[in-house]
């Protein structure tokens, strides 16, 4: 099946720093990419939806200036957590949708903000 | 607002047992329903996808049913094995009003432990 990769898989940073997470569709072009956040024992919550070359659409309650999303190509999207704080510590998962409308998920990135 | 509930939150069974995981959703206006598996600290693996017009899907020892009118789905696992231990997530695909895009709405999952 199709593969979606995320990098890094785990990151620890100091409060106030910015962290960039990459999401790549390795063997297909993604019409749309999604970013989710999952807190312990909670469900995945959609943060934003992005289409290549256009601005991301953020879910209610998600700060677009804090979570910067860039969808530079049909195979790459990045999420930058700016001025990270301990409450941003979470598991971030990206997903990519194919032209055939199938959605594949990345392995996730564990962010810990000290 | 669509809400997805999964019961039970956790389940522990002996190896070989057949089991059923439950998922309910509040709004029947869905495009499809999908069951995923998530291993600890990992991403999601899609198990079964049921379109809104379908009643069930089967893959190996897994069978998922969908009753859209009552807002329910079940995932049946036959002859469970220790390797089936994981968290199982149910998600419905919905369309958003006011120009929003379609999205998946997830339940919190059922953590399954199959004991040897």
List keywords for this structure.
heterodimer; A: 114 residues; 7-stranded mixed β-sheet; 0% helix; 53% strand; B: 116 residues; mainly beta; 11 strands; globular
Q: Can you lay out the helices and strands and say which pair or pack?
A:
The complex is a heterodimer of chains A (114) and B (116).
Chain A: E1 4-7, E2 10-13, E3 19-25, E4 32-38, E5 45-51, E6 57-58, E7 67-73, E8 76-81, E9 90-97, E10 103-105, E11 109-113
Chain B: E1 4-7, E2 10-14, E3 19-25, E4 32-38, E5 44-51, E6 56-59, E7 62-67, E8 72-77, E9 86-94, E10 103-106, E11 110-115
Parallel strand pairs in B: 2-11
Antiparallel strand pairs in B: 1-3, 3-8, 4-5, 4-9, 6-7, 7-8, 9-10, 9-11
Question: Overview of this structure, please?
Answer:
- The complex is a heterodimer of chains A (114) and B (116).
- Chain A has 114 residues and is mainly beta.
- In chain A, 0% of the residues lie in helices and 53% in strands.
- Chain A contains no helices and eleven strands.
- In chain A, the strands form two sheets. In chain A, strands 2, 4, 5, 6, 9, 10 and 11 form a seven-stranded mixed sheet that branches.
- Chain A starts with a strand and ends with a strand.
- Chain B has 116 residues and is mostly beta strands.
Beta-strand content bin of chain B: over 45%
Low-confidence stretches of chain B: none
Broad structural category of chain B = mainly beta
- Sheet with the most strands, sense and barrel status of chain A: 7 strands, mixed
The total count of helices of chain A amounts to 0
């Amino acid at each position: 099946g199709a593969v979606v990769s995320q990098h890094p898989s785990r990151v620890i940073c100091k409060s106030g720093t910015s962290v960039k997470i990459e999401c790549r569709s390795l063997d297909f072009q993604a019409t749309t990419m999604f970013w989710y956040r999952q807190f312990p024992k909670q469900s995945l919550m959609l943060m934003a939806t992005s289409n290549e070359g256009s601005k991301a659409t953020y879910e209610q309650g998600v700060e677009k200036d804090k979570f910067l999303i860039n969808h530079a190509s049909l195979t790459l999207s990045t999420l930058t957590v700016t001025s990270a704080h301990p409450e941003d510590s979470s598991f971030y998962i990206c997903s990519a949708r194919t032209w055939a409308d199938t959605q594949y998920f990345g392995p996730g990135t564990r962010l810990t903000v000290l | 607002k669509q809400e997805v509930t999964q019961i039970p939150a956790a389940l522990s069974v002996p190896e070989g047992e057949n089991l059923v995981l439950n998922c309910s959703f509040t709004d029947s206006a869905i495009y499809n329903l999908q069951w995923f598996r998530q291993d600890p600290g990992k991403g999601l693996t899609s198990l079964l996808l049921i379109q809104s017009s379908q009643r069930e899907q089967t893959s190996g020892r897994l069978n998922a049913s969908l009753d859209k009118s009552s807002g329910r789905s079940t995932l049946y696992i036959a002859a469970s094995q220790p390797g089936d231990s994981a968290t199982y997530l149910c998600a419905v695909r919905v369309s958003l009003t006011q120009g929003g895009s379609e999205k998946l709405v997830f339940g919190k999952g059922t953590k399954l432990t199959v004991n040897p």
